[in-house]
Amino acid sequence: MTVIRSTAARAAALALLFTAALFGASAAPARADGAAVALHVPENAYLTKRGVGPTGGTRIWLDPSPGGGLATRAGVELKVDASDLAGTARLRTRRDCGDHTWTTQPFTCDLGTLTRGKRNYPDALYIEAAPGARAGAHGTIRYTFSAPGSADATFETEVWVGGADLRERVEKPRRDLTAGGDFEFTPHVRNAGKVPAHGFGVEFSSPRLNFRTQYSNCWYADTRSAYCWFDRTLDPGRSYAFASPITVGVPDETVNSSFQYNAYLSGLTGNAEDPATAFTTDADPGLKRGKGPELTVREVAGAASGYNDEYSLGETKVSTTQTADLKAGAGELAGRTGTTADVTFSLRNAGPGRVYGAYMEITPPEGTSVVEPTPPPDPDNELEWQWECGSLGGGKYSCRPDHPLEPGENWKTTLRFKLDQRVRDAEGRLDIKQGSSRPAKDPRPADNTVPVVTKITGGPLVEPSKKPVAETAKASSDGGGSGGPGGPVLAAGAGALVVAAGLGALWVRRMRARRQP
What we know:
Shape: elongated
Number of strands: 38
Number of helices: 3
Strand content: 35-45%
Radius of gyration: 28 Å
Helix content: under 10%
């Protein structure tokens, strides 16, 4: 997956790459001195769907720029010859290229003046597999750009019907790692599709772990992501492993974290969004290319099982020997029956480690109930609205931060309670939980629990209908089930937005969730 310039710009480029065109390829720059046009065109493109564009077909995203170092180039024409695709694929055109409905005959597009630094996408070309074409059928598109007083610039793309389906091996959790040290792992990729992958990339990412700069065909951004490109064909039904391991550094304060790696095909999307060509310091000064040997892959034997499915996030949990002392805090619940009162709850990380996945489990005192907030009426802000808490059922609530807790950080949230009855000796409870898949290694678990003391006045005193919370604490969940960080917490903040948007686009294969340690 492509990384372009700033973090936000890189994310936008990734979304464009995996949603704008359903192609995959290894790209090869073709720049002739004095030629009419400079352009990067993938050597291979894959047709995986039919009828997905506004006029049918998948848009071909070409982004030509003036050649020969010129700022502008006038009178540019594009000649497209798809005759080799007869029976394999077909083109539909409009606007700059005139109206042609599903043809493989040559045609010409009038592009006018091209300007360097400006997007020059000709909104004109769409392609789809021909009816009856079988997966694996292929042919060549030839593009010729011409302009007065300049040499023609010719480019070719091999078009394949169908696409490779790249899957990553499911990695086992890494436990008891040494904080401040390194660990290694060897990625495995399988082509589960029916079409070869002619060149592919692998993205590595983690919000906190560091990918050590190593290989000359890998580019590294902000130490927490790496992108490797391989000019290697992956045959259908075959598995491949990296010939050398990837080294990952674990910061000193890490208690738990995760990493993921994702194999991908590049896209026919123009200059900046082509992974095979965008990973250069010229295209992105924030990227650092490895200075070591070239990283290669080798075919390996093994069953098809043990690889992520198409929509898996591919996350691998990591935990270390570092510790984090989590402390619970709760205010007093006071007021008259029939009214409401607010209580602030706190989750403090006393360190020394940084921890992710800790959350609150709140049991309201008997005779009270939580008043859930109402989302704002503005529909434009509906997805931006956020509440950190959600019902667990049985009267309990779970509240969690949407970020890791740094050493010394004190995260707070406030709940509003309706005071329904005055119950004798009513007492609620706040428990700090940690999902079993993200162990916190808390050296003092006794301070993870505090009572919610009540001082309710007015109305008759009612005898309790159930045992005090303290006597039922042992039945409380350890957080690994629905009340854990993956449970039904009502959060529609940054993480939920990523999931909501990603499920729609999936970046063709899948959107990679970023809400992790």
